[in-house]
Specification:
This protein is elongated. With 323 residues, it is α/β, with parallel strands linked by helices. It has helices spanning 5-13, 18-25, 29-42, 54-61, 76-82, 90-103, 111-125, 184-198, 227-236, 252-266, 277-292, and strands at residues 138-143, 148-151, 158-168, 174-179, 204-207, 214-215, 224-225, 239-240. α2 (18-25) packs across α3.
Length: 323
C-alpha cells in the first residue's frame, strides 16, 4: 500500500502530532517523520500546485526510493521467537535473512525496511495502555445498538429510528440524535449538528468502521476513508482515525456512552409514544441535558463541568454537503 503523502502533509499543516498522523494514515511514525522532513527540505506544502496523486508525491519527494512490494518479507513470527534468545539481535537476523534471499535468488529488504516489518508486527501484539487526552482534543462517534421507535398515527406502523452518539473523550460530554436510517446523508448531518452542539471542532475524530466512515478493502488493517467523510474532515480541519476492527478499546468512551445512553435516554423513554422524528429528538434533547449534567461518582463533577474553558471556532457547513 502506497504512503498517503498528501494526507500526511495536510494533517501536519493542521498541527496534528506525528503519532496521530501515523494512526490516521495507517503508516509508521518513522514514515511520517521522513515525509515531513523531506517536504521541508524541498520547501513543499500539501497545497503544492501540480501535485495531485500519491505517485506524483513519491516521485517528487523520493525519486530514487525502490519499491519494496516485490521483495521478500521477513518471517516475523520466527524473528519474534529468535529475539527472545540470548545474544540474538536484529542485525544478526537481518544478515541471515539476506543470506537466505541470496541463496534463493530473491531480492532482500534494506535493514530499515526489515526493522519496519518487525515494528508493525510488534504493534499488533502490544499491550494496551491508558492514553491521556487533552480537553477538546478528540471526539468518538458511533451508532447506538438499540434503535428507538416511531409510530405512524394513521396506520400504527412502527418505524425504527437509529441513534447517533458523539462523545468528547476527555470530558465525556455527549451528543445524541435520532435518524430514520444510517446512510451517509444522516451520518454527515449528525456530525454537523454535533459540532454545533459542542460549539467547536476537535482535532481528532474517531469513528467506528461503518460503511459511511470507511471503505473496507481486502486489507482490514488499512481501511480507506469514505470520500465524502474525508472532504468533511478537510473542511473542518480535523483528522479522522478509524477504530481498528474488533478493537472496542480504540473508542472506549463512545462504547461506554452507548451503554449509558441506552439506560438514561432510550430506556427512560420506553413508555412514551412518538409520532414523528421531531418529537423523538425533542425528548432525546431533554434527556441529553439531564445526562450531561449528571455528576461523576469518582470525579465529583459533571460532563458539562469537565468541558474545556474555551471552545474552538469552527466554519459553517459547506453548501455541497448532502444535508
Amino acid at each position: 500500500m502506497m504512503t498517503n503523502y498528501h494526507e500526511i502533509l495536510r494533517l501536519k499543516s493542521l498541527g496534528v502530532s506525528e503519532r496521530n498522523i501515523a494512526l490516521s494514515c495507517s503508516c509508521s511514525r518513522n514514515t511520517v517523520s521522513k515525509v515531513v522532513k523531506r517536504a521541508s527540505e524541498l520547501g513543499l506544502a500539501w497545497t503544492a500546485h501540480g501535485i495531485k496523486t500519491n505517485a506524483e508525491w513519491q516521485t517528487m519527494l523520493f525519486p530514487k526510493e525502490n519499491d519494496s512490494s516485490t521483495k521478500r518479507p521477513p518471517n516475523c513470527e520466527y524473528i519474534r521467537k529468535e529475539l527472545l534468545k540470548n545474544g540474538v539481535s536484529k542485525k544478526l537476523l537481518w544478515a541471515e535473512y539476506m543470506e537466505e534471499c541470496r541463496l534463493n535468488n530473491e531480492e532482500s529488504l534494506m535493514y530499515s525496511q526489515f526493522c519496519r516489518y518487525i515494528q508493525q508486527d510488534e504493534q499488533k501484539r502490544r499491550a494496551t495502555m491508558h492514553i491521556a487526552r487533552k480537553p477538546g482534543e478528540q471526539v468518538e462517534v458511533d451508532w447506538a445498538g438499540n434503535p428507538a421507535k416511531i409510530i405512524d398515527p394513521d396506520t400504527g406502523v412502527i418505524t425504527e429510528a437509529y441513534l447517533f452518539v458523539g462523545v468528547m473523550t476527555y470530558s465525556q460530554y455527549a451528543y445524541v440524535e435520532a435518524f430514520i436510517n444510517e446512510k451517509q446523508r444522516a451520518w454527515i448531518t449528525a456530525h454537523v449538528h454535533m459540532y454545533n452542539y459542542f460549539g467547536g471542532v476537535a482535532t481528532l475524530l474517531v469513528p467506528d468502521n461503518c460503511k459511511t466512515a470507511v471503505i473496507h478493502t481486502k486489507d482490514w488493517y488499512t481501511p480507506k476513508l469514505n470520500a465524502t467523510y474525508h472532504e468533511m474532515a478537510e473542511h473542518y480541519g480535523t483528522a479522522i482515525i478509524p477504530a481498528r476492527v474488533r478493537k472496542p478499546k480504540d473508542k472506549a468512551s463512545v462504547e461506554g456512552a452507548v451503554g449509558n445512553i441506552s439506560t438514561w435516554i432510550t430506556a427512560a423513554l420506553r413508555n412514551e409514544q412518538f409520532f414523528s422524528l421531531e418529537d423523538l429528538n425533542t425528548a432525546i434533547r431533554e434527556k441529553l441535558e439531564i445526562f450531561n449534567h449528571r455528576t461523576f461518582q469518582k470525579k465529583g463533577r459533571s460532563q458539562v463541568e469537565s468541558l474545556p474553558p474555551r471552545r474552538v471556532a469552527f466554519p459553517k457547513p459547506p453548501t455541497n454537503y448532502p444535508l
